[in-house]
Amino acid sequence: MMSPDTVWLELAGLRAVVTGGGGGIGRAAALKLLDAGVETIVLDQHAHAYAQTVHDAARLGFAPETVVCDVADSTDVKNAARAIGPVDLLVNTAGIVGEGDLLNVDAGEWATMLSVNLSGSFHTAQAFAPGMIARGGGAMVHIASIAATHPRAHSSAYSASKAGLKLMSQQLAFELGPSGIRSNTISPGMVRTPRTETNYLAPDLIERRHAAVPLGRVARPCDIADVVLFTLSPRARYITGADIVVDGGLTQTLMSHITESGG
Fold this sequence. Notes:
Elements: H1 4-7, E1 15-19, H2 24-35, E2 39-44, H3 51-59, E3 65-68, H4 74-84, E4 89-92, H5 107-117, H6 119-134, E5 138-143, H7 158-176, E6 181-188, H8 205-212, H9 221-232, E7 243-246
Parallel strand pairs: 1-2, 1-4, 2-3, 4-5, 5-6, 6-7
Helix pairs in contact: 2-3, 2-9, 4-6, 6-7
């Protein structure tokens, strides 16, 4: 049964694919889509990656379809798309992070990060768009980052990959708009997920990060997933080519680092 707070989104009966569906944001998005009455297909690189998503869905009375798929492999994505068939919604959350100064990043690491964070979304958009066109339209949401606009130092190709993803989504919005397909990015700030949880083991780190955010806390995956669902829904039918920042106001604090000097 759908929750009353999801009925207004008017998503019931649609079909969606969520890449990286075993991760924090991907899992939250998949569960919320299921709760909204959406037939949801969860993609991840390994079956064990989405096992927790399937378990959590079962506890809520849902049974999402699952497909093992490496989004960095265009052939793998094409095969998955053929097996799944046409969908109305695409949520690209699959992504990886890295460490290291750009001058020290080797070509292989650079290529790997771009192949997942940027090319992965390109492959899925290219594979699933024809089905959306055949169904009369659809919507795509790609998870970018505030690092796409505010470079995250010492993070290898992460910022470059997310910046490319943002612009790719804008190009898709322009090219696919006449076919009734919308494409948007969502740029989270700090999000506490299973993948980032080790970052919070340092003493006082969580308190310092909470203090850095105007809304007073680090985001949870559901904070991002709620925006994903709205952006996919007919309630956002005139929003395309946008980048929606969901960071609790973190990026608005830049000037607070500058000492007042009268100008």
